[in-house]
Design brief:
The chain has 271 residues and is of the alpha/beta class. The chain has helices spanning 7-14, 31-42, 61-66, 71-80, 91-95, 113-116, 120-135, 147-159, 189-212, 218-228, and strands at 2-4, 20-25, 46-51, 85-87, 139-143, 165-169, 232-239, 255-262, 265-270. The structure holds adenosine monophosphate.
Length: 271
């Protein structure tokens, strides 16, 4: 595995290959990331993983500072997975140039996480746009766990006529149902149990909504989640995955999207 910190040296190496399959990450690697990498390795191009904790997508400095990092362990894992290239850029390497494409922000960026994390998706699209310009990947592997992010990146790529294709990867979960996330590293055993109880509570809720074709009383659900152990709930909403519109009639296909806090850790998922 070749490791790069400088985009020009990286480009010298990769722009002569037939193409790149790209897996962007913020490190703190877990089985969700591994699944993306394994899918990428099935494609005919070389796999490039990036690790960059992008300060621009954090709406709070304290959250950026406390985001779990484990570079040594990550590098060891990526070597074991026989990843071809690892790009660990500095802030300047990413933000020290003016990209050709402007970012396109679909209006759905104002909903769900966009509503509760001001500037978050602007930061995500900015960094992804820059990565795309540097790497020019044939494929980009993204997880459905962060579905709103995936949807917005797809829209940006469509609108800007970028040639990279998105490969949507399913959400990988712990045995207790909780989606793997770097932020889980901040949870103790008891807090993990709460996250699992919340997962099962909301999975059952989704089944009930589907069966009874009914509306749900959001205030009651939020109260129950607090009883289970959540500190605060940002949102629980049904969204259609195709057009990313809010679903009011539960006859229609939807996923239940939610974001909540256990102590200071913010977790998101969709089921
Ligand atoms: P992150 O390092 O959190 O920015 O995530 C990097 C990529 O991994 C994103 O495309 C995420 O959607 C994806 N990802 C994160 N957690 C999971 C998971 N549990 N299952 C599948 N993909 C995931």
């Amino acid at each position: 595995m070749k490791i790069f910190k400088d985009k020009h040296i990286l480009q010298k190496e990769i722009l002569k290959t037939k193409g790149i399959s790209f897996v962007p990450t913020m490190g703190g690697l877990h089985k969700g990331h591994i699944s993306l990498i394994k899918q990428s390795k099935k494609f005919k191009f070389k796999t490039l993983v990036s690790i960059f904790v992008n300060p621009k997508q954090f709406n709070k400095k304290s959250d950026f500072r406390s985001y779990p990092r484990n570079k040594k362990k990550d590098i060891k894992l990526l070597k074991k997975l026989k990843v071809n290239y690892l790009y660990i850029p500095t802030f300047k390497d990413i933000y020290g140039f003016k990209p050709k494409n402007k970012i396109f922000l679909d209006k759905s960026s104002k909903r769900l996480c966009g509503k509760f994390r001001k500037g978050h998706f602007e930061g995500v699209l900015d960094v992804v746009n820059r990565f795309i310009e540097i790497i020019k990947p044939k494929y980009i592997f993204l997880g459905k766990k962060d579905y709103q992010q995936l949807y917005l990146i797809k829209k940006h790529i469509e609108k800007s006529k970028i040639k990279s294709k998105i490969v949507e990867c399913k959400t990988i979960r712990e045995n207790n149902g909780v989606a793997f996330s770097t932020r889980n590293l901040s949870l103790n055993k008891n807090q993990m149990k709460i996250a699992s109880n919340i997962f099962y509570y909301l999975s059952n809720l989704k089944k009930k909504i589907k069966k009874k074709n009914g509306q749900f009383k959001i205030s009651l659900i939020k109260k129950n989640l607090i009883k289970i152990g959540a500190k605060k709930i940002d949102y629980i909403e049904n969204y259609n995955l195709k057009n990313f519109k809010k679903v009011k009639n539960s006859n229609k296909k939807f996923n239940l999207f939610f974001a909540y806090y256990i102590k200071n850790t913010r977790l998101i998922d969709n089921i």
